[in-house]
């Protein structure tokens, strides 16, 4: 029994009901107020969210504005970079053209070819860029830069070579193959053409013919086409089908081969001069009749010897020479 309760109230529970009901009503009113407050807060949050979404959709926020501005600046820089790459590529192409058709023509030397330099990179090199947001822009740009770098490297090597050639131009002029290896009056029949895609008449399949064949009598004199050192002499044997042969090293990347000889007249290590007698034509190795197989090799790659025959010949002489040249059956392989 509390101090405020009278003995009569304590003994009569019915008299306590109004107080309990009052407290319960008070609790209900508090809960209702809390629910209304929470509802207002939720409705306010939803309303603010809707307004924010609509505002973001219709108007740029400061953050989105900065992002868009940065993207525009990035695209402008990308276009400037692309233009600079194109300009650099055009200038490099011009240098390459002058290198091939002016500088190398002055030194009478072949175009520099480095197949490994032009070998394209596989997708593996650019694999890390595929997941980048701007991969479609970045990968082509990197490929352009790689191509430009290969071009610059090739031209650097070419100019280093031309610088060396300019130092020894007189010696180079005498060394590069520049005459016929046989007296033209000794020729018999057609001239077997240089043909990297020749369809072999006997084997019935594509087999490159890396030289020029001169039909002639056995014992016809063969001459060195430029100053050189004798690198190899095979005075007997099959020798891969070449039979008796001579390989001259002219320096400056040039070598010449004289094959199917009847008899070599020089030895390994000899120094020979342009026009010097070095052997006699024959019918050795894989040969069906007496002839000379003559090759010009530049930096390990066979090139067309016709380009080195008497560069002062007239256009009519050159046309007649081309008419004489065709695939022949001088060689069985």
Keywords:
333 residues, alpha+beta, Glucose Permease (Domain IIA), 3 domains, 11 strands, 17% strand
List the helices and strands and how they pair.
Elements: H1 7-11, H2 17-58, H3 62-106, H4 135-167, H5 169-175, E1 191-192, E2 212-215, E3 221-223, E4 228-234, E5 244-251, E6 254-264, E7 271-272, E8 277-281, E9 291-298, E10 301-303, H6 315-324, E11 325-326
Parallel strand pairs: 1-11
Antiparallel strand pairs: 1-2, 2-9, 3-8, 4-5, 4-7, 5-6, 6-8, 6-9, 9-10
Helix pairs in contact: 3-4
Overall description:
The protein is an alpha+beta fold and 333 residues long. The protein folds into 3 domains: 12-58; 77-167, no CATH class; 184-326, Glucose Permease (Domain IIA), CATH 2.70.70. Helices cover 43% and strands 17% of the residues. The chain has helices at 7-11, 17-58, 62-106, 135-167, 169-175, 315-324, and strands at residues 191-192, 212-215, 221-223, 228-234, 244-251, 254-264, 271-272, 277-281, 291-298, 301-303, 325-326. Strands 1, 2, 3, 4, 5, 6, 7, 8, 9, 10 and 11 form an 11-stranded mixed sheet that branches. A hairpin with a 2-residue loop joins strand 9 (291-298) and strand 10. Helix 3 packs parallel to helix 4. The longest helix has 45 residues, at 62-106. The protein starts with 6 loop residues before the first helix and ends in a 7-residue tail after the last strand. The mean pLDDT is 79.
């Amino acid at each position: 029994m509390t101090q405020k309760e009278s003995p009569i109230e304590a003994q009569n529970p019915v008299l306590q009901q109004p107080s309990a009901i009052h407290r319960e009503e008070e609790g209900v009113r508090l809960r209702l107020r809390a629910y209304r407050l929470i509802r207002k807060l939720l409705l306010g949050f939803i309303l603010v969210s809707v307004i924010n979404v609509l505002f973001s959709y219709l108007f740029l926020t400061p953050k989105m504005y900065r992002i868009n501005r940065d993207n525009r600046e990035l695209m402008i820089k990308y276009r400037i970079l692309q233009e600079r790459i194109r300009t650099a590529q055009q200038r490099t192409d011009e240098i390459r053209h002058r290198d091939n058709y002016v500088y190398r023509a002055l030194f009478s030397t072949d175009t520099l070819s480095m197949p490994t330099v032009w070998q394209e990179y596989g997708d593996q090199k650019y694999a890390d860029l595929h997941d980048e947001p701007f991969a479609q822009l970045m990968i082509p740009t990197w490929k352009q830069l790689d191509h430009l770098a290969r071009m610059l490297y090739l031209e650097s090597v070419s100019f280093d070579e031309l610088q060396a050639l300019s130092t020894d131009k007189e010696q180079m002029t005498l060394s590069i193959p520049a005459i016929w290896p046989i007296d033209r009056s000794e020729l018999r029949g057609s001239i077997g053409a240089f043909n990297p895609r020749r369809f072999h008449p006997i084997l019935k399949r594509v087999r490159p013919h890396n030289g020029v064949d001169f039909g002639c009598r056995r014992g016809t004199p063969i001459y060195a086409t430029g100053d050189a050192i004798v690198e190899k002499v095979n005075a007997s044997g099959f020798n891969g089908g070449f039979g008796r042969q001579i390989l001259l090293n002219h320096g400056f990347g040039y070598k010449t081969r004289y094959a199917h000889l009847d008899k070599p007249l020089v030895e390994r290590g000899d120094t020979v001069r342009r026009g010097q007698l070095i052997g006699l034509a024959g019918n050795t190795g894989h040969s069906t009749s007496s002839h000379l197989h003559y090759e010009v090799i530049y930096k390990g790659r066979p090139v067309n010897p016709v380009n080195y025959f008497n560069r002062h010949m007239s256009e009519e002489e050159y046309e007649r020479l081309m008419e004489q040249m065709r695939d022949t059956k001088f060689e069985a392989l």
